Amino acid sequence: MHFETIIIGAGAAGMMCAAHAGRSVLVLDHAKAPGEKIRISGGGRCNFTNMWAEPANYLSANPHFCKSALARYTQWDFIELVNRHGIAWHEKTLGQLFCDGSAKQIVAMLLAEMDRVGAQLWLNSSVAELRKTDGGYSLDVNRDGGHRTLTCRNLVLASGGKSIPKMGATGFAYDVARQFGLNVTETRPGLVPFTFSDARFKPLSGTALPVRLSNALASFDEAMLFTHRGLSGPAVLQLSSYWHAGEAIRVNLIPELDLFTALRDQRQTSGRRDLSTELARHLPARLVDFLAPELALKGRLADQSDTALQTLCDGLRDWHLTPSGSEGYRTAEVTLGGIDTDGLSSKTMQAKAVPGLFVIGEAVDVTGWLGGYNFQWAWSSAYAAGVAI
Ligand code: FDA
């Protein structure tokens, strides 16, 4: 059986590419259903893009690589597609756009787009072997217990990264890339909670507050959540993509507050108030209790000198923590690193040295921030390959 184009992976990128790749397209996936990560994304509402997406929101060994694709298929193009399909949406925060209804609407939209151009979808299908032929590629495919050999002119790798192996994520795209001589950069989990082996934050589990979380490479002002295993929440997930094992992170627990002035003023008017009680007006009470020994919180406001208040505020503004690790691919939203962009055309996503081989989506060494940026990369890179085919 011959197809012009075979796309491996019916996820965000694979389905989007199929909708733009012209005629005679087959999308195959080893899963039972297409777009499973879309379905579970954004708490079931899919944060499908971000109004403010731009190249600065992406990590890659080559930060310029994503520019061309993102410019040619923008967030506004995807919003237009969503509108055309009558899917209602809203901005939650920071430009993040979610479906009002369900993420399943995005999956249905992509399937309808594939239908419109007559692309075929084979589920429960895995590739046993892949070879380069004179005019393209030959694939041995296992499907529903049977075995078939397929040929195609263009082969698109859209099988994603390694995050959430329970959902069928594999390193398949990386293996195929290496088979054809492409380089694969070091991969590691991104957008992932931090763990602390001593479970020190267990008493704070469930407590959340707005923080500024930083290391030498990046800084994020968003919420942080204490968990029984460590730290999570948007600020933590964001910083995790810039974190390397063994490094310390810095937490500013009072990013938007001039706490020193507030405490000094209170000392003036309510000096008899307990320092911890006063602090609990600005921070979660459980966190104040937790920090009390470390920050030597004791006595009344009136007992605190300016220097003591300043030392306290400095401590709250610059809390150094060293995570023992991360939760890994088990819960990571994305894989950092991947197929080296040096070997790919940024205009078409085609391998420079392997005609007819394209790589799109998360398999490529381009990773977005939390907040709809990763789906936007999937749409943009898929469109670039689709129109080039
Ligand atoms: P994707 O992983 O979507 O698709 C790959 C497909 O290939 C899958 O269908 C898989 O079954 C198939 N496959 C894998 N190996 C194969 C093999 N060997 N043979 C055949 N098929 C194979 N991003 C965002 O922008 N907004 C959000 O709200 C979220 N939320 C979110 C929540 C959770 C829990 C996760 C894990 C991730 C997110 N993300 C996200 C990230 C987003 O899901 C991710 O960046 C995109 O799905 C990547 O799209 P791809 O099409 O590249 O891979």
TrEMBL record:
Its EC number is 1.14.13.-. Residues 188-334 form the RsdA/BaiN/AoA(So)-like insert domain. It comes from the Bacteria. Its cofactor is FAD. The keyword Translocase does not apply. One of its GO terms (molecular function) is oxidoreductase activity. Pfam families: HI0933_like, HI0933_like_1st. Coiled coil: none annotated. Keywords: FAD, Flavoprotein, Oxidoreductase. Residues 4-387 form the RsdA/BaiN/AoA(So)-like Rossmann fold-like domain. This is NAD(P)/FAD-dependent oxidoreductase.
